Amino acid sequence: MTKTFQNFIAGQWSAPESGAYFENRNPADTRDLIGTFPLSNSHDVDAAVASAKRGFEIWRNTPAPARGDVLRRVGDLLTQRKEEIADLMTREMGKPLTETRGDVQEGIDTAYYAATMGRQLSGRTVPSEMSNKWAMSFRRPIGVAGIIAPFNFPLAIPTWKMFPALVCGNACVFKPSEDVPHTGHTLVEIMLEAGLPPEVIQLVHGLGADVGAPIVSHPDVAVVSFTGSTQTGSMVGETCGRMHKRLSLEMGGKNAMIVMDDADLDLALDGVLWGAFGTTGQRCTATSRLILQKGIHDNFLGKLVERARGMALGDGRKKGTDVGPLIHESSRAKVERYIDIGQSDGADLLCGGRRPDGNKFEHGFFFEPTIFARVEAGMRIEQEEIFGPVLSVIRVSDADEAFRVNNGVKYGLSSSLYTRDVNLAFRAFNELDNGITYINAPTIGAEAHLPFGGVKQTGNGHREGGWEVYEFYSETKVGYCDFSGVLQRAQIDNYLGTPD
Fold first, then answer.
1. pLDDT tens, 426-484?
2. pLDDT at 498 over 90
3. Judging by DSSP bridges, how do beta strands 201-203 and 171-175 pair with one another?
4. How far is the C-alpha of 192 from the C-alpha of 196, rounded, in Å?
5. Which of 320, 331, 415, 442 is the most exposed place for a label (fewest CB within 10 A)?
């Protein structure tokens, strides 16, 4: 029997105003129906925001260490249910269990880190320029936070956004991706079980145009965090700018891994296979460009193609699977369009580039790991985010050319350099135009306690993760206390100057 899921609004599980639902199916086997989820609309968003406002008034007055204690209990529950959540996540979005276990672990790490931050939301105390006067700053919450998350990290990314927002004292209206609603539903269940007051969290399922857009444009949503495409992020930014909302955007990437002639090639080979084809290339940090110095280019490329051809496609819940399916058919069709584009622009298709043969693949959205060689800087497959298992290989003469190629795209999320030259490694930190640079590791692998984000058209300057995100979800309040008993005029009484 098909299970029907509900929204969580105003402290209760409830049907959408429309009465309509959408299907959530396993991308590895579309015959497997996970459940039906609400097709919500702006009326549901209005109800959720009204409830979140009530929740905010309760939550903002809860001491921050107590808010952190709730997140610690969330971490405990995620730890207890790690294997179960990993399994349902793989069923829902396709990546292998090894990866979804890591996804859950990132949520656990984020919960425990958030718990400690409940005791570290510090301001500053500084000397006043006046006698017998105290001057200080402190952090306070903003209000209702609109949380719009993508499909590729169904648990980790919502926790990046919601856990800091909650520890800072905000209430959340959460829209998970319509491709992974079951994970979002389970996360909210766990947060409620951990003791989060019911009106502090609202879960509204549905499509971006019907739910995401009304959240962004709602006048009582004061802060928005969005992860998705650069195109959609631009529209979110226009709305938030016009309405003077605080906004964090995490958008596209076209990340490059550079391998120099002196690199440990076996290490680099493992790195690029993981970076390019982990999560079936559906990461904003995926290694979608491989920049090889000419001395090792041919040898490295030959080994890479051999290893890529040997990667096992299949259901991520089955042992031995290296690469799962793409999230849906439109994603696979997009990848196929870029295969045609790459070939028409003159790149050499060395492996992959097609749907795999075999009965076990016919009901899933599978696509073979794909490598293009003789890719030139400026080609569309070198410039545009594909979000699939497609790697473009560019040959360069030296580090200067490699750095120019890395920087020659509109995105700036992650980069990677394999070398034994420590001087070149530190040059890379300075010169690669990205928010994140790895040395002797692929372009994926961010850790929960460090800031995450990029430059240029990848983001708008804010960061998720680490300590910086707590500044995004809170505002600075300055307080002065004058206990002199007399009127003291700053900048006047203490600097009288020359009398008239």
1. 999 999 999 999 999 999 999 999 999 999 999 999 999 999 999 999 999 999 999 99
2. no
3. parallel
4. 5
5. 320
What is the C-alpha to C-alpha distance for residues 69 and 92, in angstroms, rounded to an integer? 30
CA distance 389 to 314: 14
Give the integer Cα–Cα distance in Å for 349 and 375. Answer: 10
Is the four-CA dihedral 92, 151, 285, 308 of positive or negative sign?
positive
Q: Which residues does 400 contact at the CB level (< 8 Å), separation at least 6?
A: none
The mean per-residue pLDDT over the stretch 137-163 comes to 98
Q: Are 160 and 465 in contact (CB under 8 A)?
A: yes
- Which class does domain 255-439 fall in? alpha beta
User: b vs e for 320-330, b when ≥16 Cβ sit within 10 Å of the residue's Cβ?
Assistant: ebbbbbbbbee
Give the residue numbers annotated as catalytic, written as ranges: 250, 284
* Pairing mode of beta strands 21-26, 29-38: antiparallel
Alpha-carbon torsion angle 21, 27, 32, 36, nearest 10: -10
Indicate the DSSP class of residue 164. H
Q: How far is CA 220 from the centre of its chain?
A: 24
Average model confidence (pLDDT) across the chain: 97
The two beta strands, 455-456 and 223-227, are: unpaired
Domain 7-251+459-479 indexed as CATH 1.10.10.10: no
Specify the domain boundaries for CATH 3.40.605.10 within the chain. 7-251+459-479
Residue 89, CA distances (Å) to 82, 102, 276 in order: 10, 11, 21
Residue 185, token pair as written in the block: 């539903």
What length does the chain have? 500
Q: Percent of the chain having pLDDT more than 90?
A: 98
Q: What is the DSSP letter of 83?
A: H
What residue ranges of the chain are covered by domains with CATH 3.40.309.10? 255-439
Residue 78 neighbours by CB under 8 Å, 6+ apart: 85, 104, 107, 108, 111, 155, 190
| Per-residue pLDDT band at 118 (split at 50, 70, 90) | very high
